[in-house]
Write a structure and sequence with these properties.
The chain is of the alpha/beta class. The chain folds into 3 domains: 102 residues, 3-Layer(aba) Sandwich (Cobalt-precorrin-4 Transmethylase, domain 1); 83 residues, Rossmann fold; 95 residues, Cobalt-precorrin-4 Transmethylase, domain 1, CATH 3.40.1010.20. The chain is 44% helix and 19% strand. It is built from 12 helices and 12 strands. Strands 1-12-10-11 form a 4-stranded parallel beta sheet, with helices on both faces. Strands 3-2-4-5 form a 4-stranded parallel beta sheet. The radius of gyration is 21 Å and the shape is flat.
Length: 291
């Protein structure tokens, strides 16, 4: 069995940089460190951080004064951040690409900001807080809701953005939809910012290329992770022989489907740590050598 890992597999550059900063904060400070929700959307990694006394909190306002609080890579609501800075020791580890989108939205606050993203995702929650007026598009169906035109009636200028891990297809559909509204005279101005992370797109592109020459593909990720599910869905559209697992133990669930394959592609999402990928890779090597 040959195991092939495509370029770009695993942590994206933003997460790698944030992890280094987080562990540096851990080294330089005593006591617990609290994070705004999950540092990245991966339950196994959350367990790993717990071993360093780094814990997630959903209620940072309940923390004792001067507690160490870390803003995770997805960012948080700007108003919550401002209030927390008054009573906690705050370290902002928001991904630089997410930070840039926040700034762009703030700079275009005179327009209705169209944000392509997942409802309830911490990144989109943070992005919305930088807009004076916004519309969240989570699916193609959202584009054809009557309320869209109602919401942009008063301010006929819009700016289009995307969550970093959103679908390029949905972004392009949205772009074309609003450009047509402008052409039809229903809105005056459309500014378009393609803010989808290039490293996410690169990983998907490379994974699709490699999968064409493999018998089966395994996606390592977490069901909580948008980029994990998107990676799996895009590969599944190209080939039925694609499996999704969250941790090494899950390999046993698909073992009968892969044990006789010659070429196996293993690809990790942007929120999958290398120690999970290494463990699964070693298990596959052992499986191949025993066959």
């Amino acid at each position: 069995m040959q195991i092939i890992i495509p370029e770009g597999s695993g942590f994206c550059p933003g997460v790698i940089a944030a992890e280094k900063k987080l562990l540096k904060i851990r080294k330089e400070n005593k006591g617990p460190i609290y994070i705004s929700g999950m540092f990245i959307h991966n339950k196994e990694y959350e367990k790993y951080l717990n071993g360093f006394n780094i814990k997630k909190t959903e209620n940072p306002f309940d923390l004792p004064e001067d507690s160490i609080f870390v803003i995770a890579t997805h960012g948080i609501d700007r108003n919550i951040e401002a209030n927390l800075e008054k009573r906690l020791k705050v370290f902002d580890l928001t991904c630089p690409k997410v930070k840039q989108i926040q700034k762009l939205i703030a700079q275009n606050s005179d327009k209705t900001c169209i944000i392509i993203g997942k409802e309830g995702h911490p990144e989109t929650t943070g992005l919305k807080s930088y807009a004076s007026s916004y519309i969240l598009i989570s699916s193609q169906e959202n584009l054809y809701e009557p309320t869209i035109l109602e919401k942009i009636k008063e301010n006929r200028k819009i700016a289009l953005f995307s969550q970093t891990t959103s679908s390029l297809a949905l972004f392009n559909d949205s772009k074309n939809f609003f450009l047509k509204l402008k052409k039809d005279g229903k809105i005056e101005e459309v500014k378009i910012f393609n803010t989808i992370c290039t490293s996410v797109q690169y990983r998907e592109q490379k994974a699709i290329e490699v999968s064409r020459n493999c018998d089966v593909s395994i996606v390592l990720g977490d069901y909580l992770s948008s980029n994990s599910k998107r990676l799996y869905d895009n590969l599944k559209q190209k080939n039925d022989e694609v499996y999704f697992i969250e941790k090494p133990d899950d390999l046993s669930k698909i073992i009968n489907n892969i044990k006789d394959k010659n070429k196996v592609m293993l690809v990790s999402s942007a929120s999958t740590p290398s120690f999970i990928e290494d463990s699964v890779k070693n298990m596959l090597i052992k499986l191949g050598s025993s066959g």
